[in-house]
Amino acid sequence: MVIRVYIASSSGSTAIKKKQQDVLGFLEANKIGFEEKDIAANEENRKWMRENVPENSRPATGYPLPPQIFNESQYLGDYDAFFEARENNAVYAFLGLTAPPGSKEAEAQAKQQG
């Protein structure tokens, strides 16, 4: 399973850049393997991302904006969904991964199951 984060390397939007850095920084800090897919430098990446964000997750007008997060080809969500999962200590579940032992998320899951 590969987490894929679709980003725009040459975005003029400070907000988009900040959100992208937030997601990538979290994944790196937690040693979660991922592939960075640049939609600004690669037309195939842009086309794939736009086609694979589900209809109900698209903005009312225009195209979905990066960062968009996938596990292989399964759509997981955008920055807001990621942020909410992080706030709830549920990022591994959001990513479709098993939380490592000792993590806040694993401890929370153990309490729920116990």
Word description of this protein:
The chain is an alpha+beta fold and 114 residues long. Helices cover 44% and strands 17% of the residues. It is built from 5 helices and 4 strands. It has helices spanning 14-29, 43-52, 79-87, 91-95, 104-113, and strands at 3-7, 34-38, 68-71, 74-78. Strands 2-1-3-4 form a 4-stranded mixed beta sheet, with helices on both faces. Strand 3 (68-71) and strand 4 form a beta hairpin. The radius of gyration is 15 Å and the shape is elongated. The mean pLDDT is 94.
Estimated structural class: alpha+beta
Instruction: Give the % helix.
Output: 40-55%
**Biggest sheet strand line-up:** 2-1-3-4
Number of helices: 5
Coarse morphology: elongated
- Approximately how much beta-strand content do the residues carry? 15-25%
The ordered string of helix (H) and strand (E) elements is EHEHEEHHH
How many β-strand runs? 4
- Name the average pLDDT: 94
Radius of gyration: 15 Å
The largest sheet is: 4 strands, mixed
Poorly predicted runs: none
End-to-end separation in angstroms reads 28 Å
